[in-house]
Amino acid sequence: MYGYYPLLYPATFILDMIFVANSVTRLQLYMKQLTNSLDETTTQIVTSIPRILQDASALQMEGALLQQKLLNLESKVQGVEEQTGHSIESLQRIDQLKSRLENAASALREADKWAALAVSLEDILEAGVPTQTDKLHELAEQVAAMTGSLEVLGDAPDYENKKLQLETLYNRLEAAVSPPLIEALTQMDPDKTATYVALFSGMSRSVSVLRCWRRAAAARLAAAWRRLDHHSIYALTRLLTADANKQVEWLTDVLKSETPVSELIKLYTDLLVSLEPSPSKVVSANLKLSSSPDEGLVLLTDLKRDIDEFVACIKSIMDAPRQNKETIQSSTLKELGKAAYAPLRELLPRYTELQSQLFLANLNDPMLKQDDLLEQSRALLSVAERCDSWMDAAYNKAKNIAGTAIYPYYAPTVEAFITSLSSHISAHSRRIETEFLSSVNSGHGAGVLSNTFPASLVLESAAAVLLDTLAGRQKVEQVDEEPKNQPPLEDLPSLLLEADARQRLAALRAESQACVAGLRRAKDQLRGLARAILRNPVDAQLEKIPQLPVWNNNDALSTDLPDFALSPQEYITEIGQYLMTLPQHLEMHLSEKQAPWQFLSDVCTHTCEIYAEKILNIRNMDALGTKRCLTDIVYLSSVVEDLGSNVTPALKSLEKSLRAATPAQAE
Description:
Among the domains are: about 360-530; about 545-665, no CATH class. The protein has helices spanning about 10-125, 135-150, 160-185, 190-200, 205-225, 235-255, 260-275, 280-290, 295-320, 330-340, 340-360, 375-400, 405-440, 450-480, 490-495, 500-510, 515-540, 555-560, 570-590, 595-615, 625-640, 650-660, 665. By secondary structure, it is mostly helical. It is flat and about 160 Å long. Helices cover about 80% and strands about 0% of the residues. It contains 23 helices and no strands.
């Protein structure tokens, strides 16, 4: 059923089959070669292992022999060390003995030299120290040799005796040489001075040279100060600044000082303290000759400027470039600063007196002595408005005198001035109050048209202006502080104030002055007085209410009158008319800052409150009296509301109660 048909394959398939067959053949050949190579390598390794083992055994034997040789060598070295150790110790003992012998020989020579030098120096001291330059050079060399010999004899048994002997000789020599050294220093003779410096250097007493220099320089400067025709701090600072650089050069080049600036600062510190006449007395005497407080403050300002110029000179010397620049201790600089600023520190209390006189002189204005109440109040207000400029100028001048360190002396002047001005305000306030009470007692009344009302308002403004000025000044002065950690010569609080004053300085600048409390009381009293004057016409009318006969004993026929037939009574219309005229009159006397509306609202509120109290004091009010009272309340309420104010709750409640009590309401 089925026939056989040969398979037909494409040519590409046949080619692929041929390629695969060839690849398999090549891989079989590679595997055979690799197998043969592995067999050969394995054969070589197996044949070489016995030889390697033999070589390792030989190396092990050689290592054992080498270790044995090292042990033998170590034992030989130890033997040599034991044999030579005793020899080395012997050599060391011999060397030490040699050194001792040499030292002993040197000490004997130095002892002989010491004895000869000591005898020679003793003879010189007995005969008198020479003044010739060449002789002094020889003496300086001899002294240096004695100092060197003493150092060599440090191990000698009599070293302490020799040291004491040398100190005694040097003391005698210093006492003999100091006068001519001071003379040479006074004359500024560099050659002679250099010779004496070498002599003192040989004695290791350079400090004594500096001490003699200070004595000579101080004596020369003190004599120059005494010879001045006119003593002043300006002349003193000119004298010292002209001498400063010369002294530094002298200290550096001639005296060979390593701290020339420190020595100069110590010299000036001692000099400023010991001058006669003292700078403080000179300035105090000049201040007494001042013809006015202004001239006295100018003198203090000039004093500060002159001292600052001297301090600036010292700082420029400190900052000048030089080799081996020295470090100057803060304590040394602070002592100089205190000595330099001593005249200013002693006269700062006088500043308080002078500035207080200037402040109080502003209150001697004839305008402050007027009979008219309002004009007197305006004069006080004018003074109060000028206080800020006065205090600002005074504070700026005060800072020129002592920086922020002036504050403990400046604050009392402001306190005294404001206290005195506050006394003027209080006295005038009592005068206004007396005038007000007098007019009330005489039956004339007061009120917005009274001269006491604007006088009290203006005076209250004066107190308010002063309070604002003091608050503003405190803020300005609190911000104006000295930087912290200032250099010693610029730290004026430390130089001019005592420790307790420095500690209280920040608190003093921050706290309010005592006069502020008095001013606040005066302002509150004046505000109350102005309101009392303004309310007086209302109070006078309201005072009549309980005694008015219209509240009771009315005719029975009149009780039935309708409400519209009743009109407000005279007392309430007087009050209403007064209240209605207040706005225009208040605008004449009050500024926007004083808030006229507040005054008007205060009077309206006061009127309602007192009116309610007075009505409650009425006894046996009949029905007609109640109607009349309600008519008055309605009238007053309309006036108050027309003025933009509100009727008090007490008066509203009272009106409701009265309406509830009327017969018409009862029905």
